[in-house]
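Practice problem: predict the structure.
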Amino acid sequence: MEMTREEIFFEMIETIYEMSRKLSVYESVPRTYGTEDELYVVEAHTIDLIGTQTVTTISELAKITKKTKGAISQMVDKLIKKDFVIKYKNPDDNRQVMIELTDKGKKVYEFHQKLDRQTYLKYLEQLNQYSTEDFLNYIKISTYLIKELDDLIDK
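Answer:
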């Protein structure tokens, strides 16, 4: 018997939940990213965000990640202790604290970028039966669901 549109949609949502659970497990295991230091995925992603911005602030990171400034500040302090990040006052505005990667942080950033690219290309090779249009539709659906979650979070 063929599934209804509603049944297919509910199954799709369930697969999203299952992927979220798997990602949570994956993120709970520390890994190395081009240095001897073990980092959790959330730390590597914070380094990635800082590297993408080149120089940023706690407020900017909090806004991007939808986390509190306190939570981001704690993460940045951990990364400072591990010598991945430095903090300094903005020379043009002493009230603003700037954050950027150290050489060690840049090494993790570059390693993580390459690792993501390799991983994503491996996935792409396994998904040859799906068209570019299929991927675009997935992005549209995901973007809609993310916006709905953002609205729930912001309530």
